[in-house]
Write a structure and sequence with these properties.
Radius of gyration: 23 Å
Number of strands: 6
Order of helices and strands: HEEEEEEHHH
Helix content: 25-40%
Distance between the termini: 88 Å
Structural class: alpha+beta
Strand content: 15-25%
Largest sheet: 6 strands, antiparallel
Shape: elongated
Mean pLDDT: 88
Number of domains: 2
């Protein structure tokens, strides 16, 4: 076999290999995307009881990109509805803890009550503030059922700051940051309920 023939065969084999790889990736892409959506859906929607909504909240984003609040920033949000009626909003909030940014998911029902809070990302001290990422999280569950006025504004603080909430042991800064971010989200919901869920709760 001549050198030219060998080169041609190698090029053909290489071309076939590249084509096969592309076809495998192309045919796998929908499955990969579907799996990623499933993971995202699980991570973002497990705060909501299944009987609370019947839509696809992740397909109903709220336009909140980088909305700066007093102690935090709203990165994004989603609307959950049932039978065509708003049921809850999911707000992705970012605040600054002891070691860096903490991303929270805050679920608020249509009446302004907290359905739950979950940590999506954090870089706090292992064994201390990093416990904010535990799931389920007993400390975060203590906020469920609270609202902007329950407790009153002065109560949205640590007990050591004359507020109503305990702190994560050894993680005062982390605890303060999370409490302030949750309070920010509730205040934002109260002030913008018409834009978020299409009705004014104070009417």
């Amino acid at each position: 076999m001549s050198r030219t023939s060998s080169v041609v065969i190698l090029l053909l084999l290489a071309g076939l290999g590249i084509t096969a790889t592309y076809l495998v990736q192309y045919s796998s892409a929908p499955r990969i995307e579907a799996e990623q959506r499933r993971i995202d859906s699980h991570n973002l929607l497990d705060l909501l009881p299944a009987d609370r909504y019947d839509n696809q909240p992740l397909e109903q984003p709220l336009h909140l990109d980088n909305t700066a609040l007093t102690n935090s920033t709203l990165l994004s949000g989603y609307l959950a509805s049932k039978a065509g009626q708003p049921a809850a909003v999911l707000l992705r909030s970012q605040t600054i803890g002891y070691a860096g940014a903490i991303d929270l998911l805050i679920a608020i029902d249509a009446n302004g009550k907290l359905l739950g809070v979950k940590t999506l990302k954090q870089s706090e001290t292992p064994g201390l503030g990093a416990r904010i990422a535990d799931w389920p999280n007993t400390w975060l569950q203590g906020f469920t059922g609270r609202s902007l006025n329950e407790p009153a504004a002065s109560g949205w603080a640590l007990k050591k700051d004359q507020g109503q909430f305990d702190q994560i042991t050894g993680a005062t800064i982390t605890s303060r940051a999370v409490i302030n971010a949750i309070h920010d989200a509730l205040r934002y919901f109260d002030e913008h309920s018409h834009q978020l869920i299409g009705s004014n709760l104070h009417e």
